[in-house]
Amino acid sequence: MEIRVLFFGVLAEVTHTMFKHYRDIASYSDLMFRIRDEFPEIIHYNYRIAVNSEMVNEDPELKNFDEVVFMPPFAGG
Amino acid sequence: MEIRVLFFGVLAEVTHTMFKHYRDIASYSDLMFRIRDEFPEIIHYNYRIAVNSEMVNEDPELKNFDEVVFMPPFAGG
Amino acid sequence: MKIEENILNEGPVTQETISYWLSIMGKNKNLGGHSIFIGQVRDDVKGLKKVIAIEYSAYPEMAKKEAGNIKQEILKEFPDVKDLHILHSTGRVMAGEVSLMVLVSAGHRHQAIDACAKTVELIKGKLPVWKKEIFEDNSHEWVHENPA
Amino acid sequence: MKIEENILNEGPVTQETISYWLSIMGKNKNLGGHSIFIGQVRDDVKGLKKVIAIEYSAYPEMAKKEAGNIKQEILKEFPDVKDLHILHSTGRVMAGEVSLMVLVSAGHRHQAIDACAKTVELIKGKLPVWKKEIFEDNSHEWVHENPA
Fold first, then answer.
1. Which of A7, C72, D11, D92 is the most buried (most CB within 10 A)?
2. pLDDT at site D27
3. pTM of the predicted model, to two decimals?
4. Which chain C residues are closer than 8 Å to B13 by Cβ?
5. Smallest Cα–Cα separation from D10: which of D125, D119, D97?
6. Which residue of B has its CA nearest to C64?
7. Chain D: nearest CA to A29, how far in angstroms?
8. Is D8-143 a domain of CATH 3.90.1170.40?
9. In whole angstroms, what separates CA A45 from the centre of its chain?
10. What is the DSSP string of B15-60?
11. What total number of domains does chain B contain?
């Protein structure tokens, strides 16, 4: 499936991108594997994952064209 | 001594005045006696007394030209 | 910051007055938060009669002094507070109009927020101000309590 | 009251914007109190460098949704609240400029004040917004914590 990935905050800086498009993704763990492979630095950062602007924990079921979002701890205000 | 007396809030309404001037006052209790004599209705109301914009309890020592103020419970805001 | 100042405002506190105070409070670049409380006259119904206005009276000399005491108490409890302004109406304020403005500026948000809330309570408890509700039929009733 | 709405504001929240929201909030005559919080960028010194601005980024779709969740949580806890507006900056906000406005209107003062304070905390904890401090020499540092 095709998955759109967004990086916010410091992670956009670390990955030098805010947006990536991945094709032929088999599952969430497949996606995570490919992202960590491409951006090994991100393991040094805290982040949470949202799918289609909904926070997820564990190992969510992904659908074609889902948006997977990497979010460092919020710092609004 | 001469004492200036102010009535605020509902007490100005009850006494039909905001301001009274008393002459030949011997003491605080003499003043209170004359006020209660003139305005017997005020005993039905709660109030505190200030002298020269300073709250007093008991039986304050008055000086000539002091200002004695009758204040119902505050209701600001 | 001036400690004793006249906080009484003849008639309602207007939008222009509030905007003016907002515009001058932000000048200081080491402030992080401003907390503002605006009290407005409600068109409550008492029995069968609707409140159309509140008429405030105050003891000005003591109000000035008590406002100074309130400021000093706040600055002692909230040392991060850099600025505190109070405006309280006297005279008639119609329903929907503003009768009280409290504006607190501090380095950080918690003290701004807590100091503003406390200032409002101190004003209710310590400021020598009285009010009567004016009804549609022009009758009135003195407010003896301080409902929340 | 609209529950989901765009609360993101490109650049600083201006005095004009704040005055506009203040002017429309008072229209309702059964309101008794408005509590407003205004957050401003501080020119803190970090090490030897002075902060000249904060640059905010946000995840807009989720910010809209979370703002709706925050409103619903507030309305549930504070049923006297009649209106709640949030504006949060994105992009660069210079020291001394405003990056956050929260405005809460209620029938009575306590719920207005408490709901505003709680909304500010929920914004800090739940809104998908990130910030970096920009220093005089144009270097920057991401803010990872939420100091009070």
1. A7
2. 79
3. 0.94
4. 142
5. D97
6. B53
7. 23
8. yes
9. 13
10. HT-SEEEE-S--SHHHHHHHHHHH-GGGGGS--EEEETTEEE-S-P
11. 1
Task: Compute the distance between CA of residue A70 and CA of residue C124 in angstroms, rounded to an integer.
Answer: 49
Answer whether C109 sits within 8 Å of D33, measured CB to CB: no
Looking at every residue in chain A, the average pLDDT score rounds to: 96
CATH number at residue B48: 3.10.20.30
Nearest CA to CA, how far is A26 from chain D (Å)? 25
Structure confidence at residue D145 as a pLDDT band (50, 70, 90): low
Q: Which residues of C touch B (CB under 8 A)?
A: 39, 56-59, 61-62, 65, 88, 99-100, 120, 123-132, 142-146
List Cα–Cα distances, B18 to B12, B26, B42, C129, C141, in angstroms. Answer: 5, 22, 13, 14, 18
Residue of chain C whose Cα is closest to the Cα of B49: C128
Residue B76 domain flag: no
Q: Which ipTM value was assigned to this complex?
A: 0.93
Determine the Cα–Cα distance for residues D43 and D93; give it in Å rounded to an integer.
11
The closest alpha carbon to C97, from C130, C52, C138, belongs to C52
User: Quick check: A51 contacting D, CB < 8 Å?
Assistant: no
* CA-based nearest distance D93→chain A, Å: 11
Single-letter amino acid code for the residue at B53: S
Which positions in chain D touch C44 (Cβ < 8 Å)?
Answer: 30
pLDDT at res. C3: 73
C5: confidence class by pLDDT, cuts 50, 70, 90: confident
Residue B38 corresponds to which tokens in the numbers above? 């003139």
Domain assignment present for A77: no
